[in-house]
Amino acid sequence: QVQLVESGGGLVQPGGSLRLSCAASGFTHDDYVIGWFRQAPGKEREGVSCISSSLGLRHYADSVKGRFTLSRDNAKNTAYLQMTSLKPEDTAVYYCAYKSDSRLSASDYEYEFWGQGTQVTVSS
Questions:
Q1: 1-26 pLDDT, tens per residue?
Q2: Residues 6 or more apart from 27 whose CB is under 8 A from it?
């Protein structure tokens, strides 16, 4: 029902920046949360950030706080993850996800729909 299309991944040097985009469609509920997760090889999927649709409330994982910024463009139904001061440990496949309520959560099992993922590689 809900489709999420991601873009913006790539290869950057440490200290560089990337902006990931997540375009959402097919949803009917006005109150929802868009979350960003990442998964590195050999590691569990980690919640990065999330934003509520109605109020714009945001949450960031401690590992990215101060470096990553989540924003939205309501007209385009698109969420953005602006990543700055990137570190090698940020290397992962990044996913956007959707949950049909207004409660912010970093628990992946609470999210109903997922994008295909986009690779972010931080290396010199």
A1: 899 999 999 999 999 999 999 999 99
A2: 1, 2, 98, 100
